[in-house]
Amino acid sequence: MIRDLIDNYIKQEKIYQKIELSSIQQTLLLQNQTLDPLMIKEVLQQRQALMDDVAAINEEAKKIQEKMKRDYGLKSFTVSEIEGVVNNIDLLELKQALENMSEVLKQISQNDLRNQTLMRQAAAESHTGPSVSNQQATNAYRQSMDRKNSQ
Fold this sequence. Notes:
The protein is mainly α and 151 residues long. The chain has 5 helices and no strands. Helix 1 runs antiparallel to helix 2 (37-72).
């Protein structure tokens, strides 16, 4: 049973690694000044499909955890709770799988924060339009007045 859970977490980590790659791909697209909304949409759709996959696998993990809680009489499913009921090698491997998954999730979170910042910047730039300096505005006004006075 613990082996099934470890394998499940390893599967989840592999999918999260793909999600991390898609978040990096999204960053690269957002950093490119010529944004292609279709490409970003495609990356987001791929990412959503991966998230759906990992959600299904995570449901399997929850079922395994619930079964282990029942079978071993655990109050909750935590590393400290299962420490005495599974062998040390499996426990170490479980801890490693959780740590690996945690690291990938941290990277995804950091990438997502960067992507949100880039999207806000792009949105702000698209709403402000080209900036005009005071000097440019003054010159345009003078030219307009000169044309009006010369007519």
